[in-house]
Design brief:
The chain has 306 residues and is α/β, with parallel strands linked by helices. 45% of the residues lie in helices and 15% in strands. The strands form 2 sheets. It has an 8-stranded parallel beta barrel, surrounded by 5 helices. A two-stranded antiparallel ribbon has the order 9-10. The longest helix is centred in the last third of the chain and has 19 residues, at 250-268. The radius of gyration is 20 Å and the shape is globular.
Length: 306
């Protein structure tokens, strides 16, 4: 499991932002060739991405490049130039507007061909698929099962809200007039269930009001409570809040590790399938729940309190 509590989106055409991102505490950095880059700058941005991946210090970070969507003439050259130029220093490609399994399989096949041509390890570069319209939602199970390279499903809220004709102009906020619950609940749960059914991570999309960290935190907590693994961030001010929301508390992490230890002792030493830990009974279901919390803590680099 890669840590993806926060995925910092960085315009691939901005060298200053790319350099700054290397020193920020985001788990993942996304060099964006799509929406964040003007059409006239896309070809030059590829060169900047290759140089940044090869020459930058990305220690401790997952390195991802978002290509242009498959309906554009830029997409195939994005993949070829970036992977041929810097594939050894790239962890994953993000595929925007993944509408069906065929989109992911196209990218998988092209990556395999490039890896074979330049001598890269076959299958090492992962894929992250963005769910960004109604068609993506309908086909989400097939998308989730489409490739062994697939690592995560990522909500693209702006395009999805537009696809649904949702009455809102603020990406990530509830549409005006919707007062009965959460307008995004079905979308989030649908992505989460498809991801978990295929052992993928589920990543929430960005919150565009970058100055309102409290609102960002509120929206992030909604996704984290459901079980999402992380969220996109658009500004350094959102990183600390995102990392905190999507990591377990120290008490919860310590408790999870203790449950795992106690259950292992009960099964392997005492020969019992259940045990008492303080005032709580624990069993196999307890172990599974504790493993989720412990895995997220380990991925975040947490250590047990003595």
């Amino acid at each position: 499991m890669r840590a993806r509590r926060t995925t910092l989106s960085v315009p691939a055409s901005n060298p200053r932002f790319i350099e700054k991102a290397q020193g920020l505490p985001a788990d993942e950095v996304l060099l964006d060739l799509e929406d964040a880059v003007a059409p006239s700058a896309k070809e030059e941005a590829r060169k900047l991405v290759v140089a940044a991946l090869n020459e930058g210090d990305w220690t401790g970070k997952t390195r991802v490049v978002r290509i242009n969507d498959l309906d554009t003439h830029w997409a195939y050259r994005d993949v070829i130039e970036v992977v041929e130029g810097a594939g050894a220093n790239l962890d994953a490609i993000m595929l925007p507007k993944a509408q069906d399994a065929g989109h992911v399989q196209w990218l998988d096949r092209l990556l395999t061909q490039i890896e074979q041509a330049v001598g890269l390890p076959a299958g090492r570069i992962g894929i992250e698929a963005q769910i960004e319209d109604a068609r993506s939602m309908v086909n989400i199970d097939a998308i989730a099962a489409s490739s062994p390279r697939l690592e995560s499903l990522v909500l693209g809220p702006g395009d999805l809200m537009a696809s649904l004709n949702m009455k809102t102009l603020v990406v990530g906020e509830q549409p005006p007039g919707y007062t009965e619950g959460d307008a995004y609940h079905y979308i989030l749960m649908r992505i989460l269930i498809a991801a978990r059914a295929h052992d993928l991570q589920a990543i929430d999309g960005p919150y565009f009001n970058i100055k309102d960290v409290d609102a960002f935190t509120r929206v992030a907590q909604r996704a984290a409570a459901l079980g999402f693994d992380g969220k996109w961030v658009l500004h350094p001010t959102q990183i600390e809040a995102g990392n905190a929301v999507f990591a377990p508390s120290q008490d919860d992490y310590d408790r999870a590790e203790l449950i795992l230890d106690a259950y292992e002792h009960s099964v392997n030493v005492e020969g019992r399938g259940a045990a008492r830990l303080g005032d709580e009974m624990i069993d196999e279901a307890s172990r599974k729940m504790a493993l989720v919390v412990a895995a997220k803590g380990r991925a975040a680099g947490m250590t047990r309190t003595p």
